[in-house]
Design goal:
117 residues; alpha+beta; 1 helix; elongated
Length: 117
Amino acid sequence: MKGILKIYHPDETLKYNIRNTYCKAVYSNQQHFLEVEIITDDSLDHVDDDSLQYNFPQLSLEVFDFPIDSAEIEGKTIKINDSDEETYTEVDLLMMKMLISMIMSFFLRKTKKVSFR
């Protein structure tokens, strides 16, 4: 599947070209589970020189062991909510660095003085 993964940030929308994906229902221990993986390429041809995306050129997103009602997933919309008790999603460390950087960048713009002790 080719396409674009968009991540919305207050300053800009980051656009990643999807390199490959898979989505399937897995049957294990008499229950169906959803598995999804999205991997983007590291192409930066479409990115402005001052973009936040230069620090995080590639992402990998994954959903695993999410219980679903049946193996038929085509055309369905499935909402996945992680909680403190159950986690079904995982994001590559590069994504976490980006989110932390974006949060800190936003925080520092709104704060005139920051000190850590």
